[in-house]
Amino acid sequence: MAVERTLIILKPDAVQRKLCGEIIRRIENKGLNIVGMKMTQIPVATAEQHYAEHAGKGFFKDLVAFMTGSKVVLLAVEGDEAIGLMRTLMGKTKFTDAAPGTIRGDYAYSFTENLIHGSDSPESAARELKLFFPEL
Ligand code: IDP
Ligand code: MG
What we know:
Elements: E1 3-10, H1 12-16, H2 20-29, E2 33-40, H3 44-50, H4 60-68, E3 72-80, H5 82-90, H6 103-107, E4 116-118, H7 122-132
Antiparallel strand pairs: 1-3, 1-4, 2-3
Bound molecules: inosine-5'-diphosphate and magnesium ion.
Inosine-5'-diphosphate binds near residues 111 and 120.
């Protein structure tokens, strides 16, 4: 088992729906460690960089507008296999596919506004943590 760090974003809908506490509770109850946390409004250029792999796709403009429209909570989360473990806790991207018991499965009802981001690989995690937590 490898100790990993992953970037988690509690998206604007999580903040607006007052679900940050519930989501953080799930992360902590699972035994993961929160090693960085801050609330911020993401600049458009940073969101475009973060989601560069999706540039040009039909949903990209809406995604960037959503992610930059109001404040988010950024978390750096650490633990054994934290990257895959967080993806499991999050559930599948699309709200209709996310299993009950997962964060998206229990609370998301929109494709774009799906409450939470989590890095999908060690390479993404390194890149995204550098973008949002350069101080770590
Ligand atoms: P992920 O967040 O589960 O890693 P990605 O495929 O990386 O999913 O997509 C990034 C984000 O873009 C999703 O979480 C969701 O907010 C949004 N998104 C992805 N695909 C679609 C789509 O087909 N329609 C609308 N929004 C989408
Ligand atoms: Mg992704």
